[in-house]
Amino acid sequence: MLILLHVCCAPDATTAVERLREEGYEPILFFSNPNIEPQEEYLKRLEATVKLSNSWNLKLVVEEPDRISWQQQIKGLEDLPEGSIRCSKCIEFRLRSTAAHAKRNGFHVFSSTLTTSPKKNSKIILEIGESVAKEFKIEYLHRDFKKKNGFLRSVILSKELGLYRQNYCGCIYSLRNRAKNGGCEL
Questions:
Q1: What mean pLDDT is predicted for residues 7-36?
Q2: How far apart are CA 86 and CA 186, in angstroms?
Q3: Contact 34, 10 (CB under 8 A)
Q4: Would the N or C end of the chain have less CB density within 10 A of its end CB?
């Protein structure tokens, strides 16, 4: 069964793809990340995702980043800390974009690689995914890909494949937070 899989980055996608294939799904990668800045970082993450899709023979759909709409989504929340409503709004924006693409293109189910990171709260991602799925009348497949050493597996697979691994969540605010506090949390 086909599943549209929102990809935040190639390393997180490795575990998700591996596990979804084990369950009988065939993931179509959907790279929709208007939050990633600066542009050089966006291109590095996209290039790594292209490399993964080519290595594992996966179809990849790249959505043109709508940075203006994303900025409107988080307007007024820019100064909030990591793990705040700003991050939830960012995730909601990207999952809504994924669900819209899924609905337009005949997918019945979608999911996200966001749960691979140990710095992401899978419960919040699940709630957002289910809410968006309800809105679009399709299914959100919740999988907490970090469970059962999923993050460690992503590190191993990323090294084997030579994939670029980023050191912050993606937006300019998480980059600033990392510089100030040494990390990114949701």
A1: 98
A2: 10
A3: no
A4: N
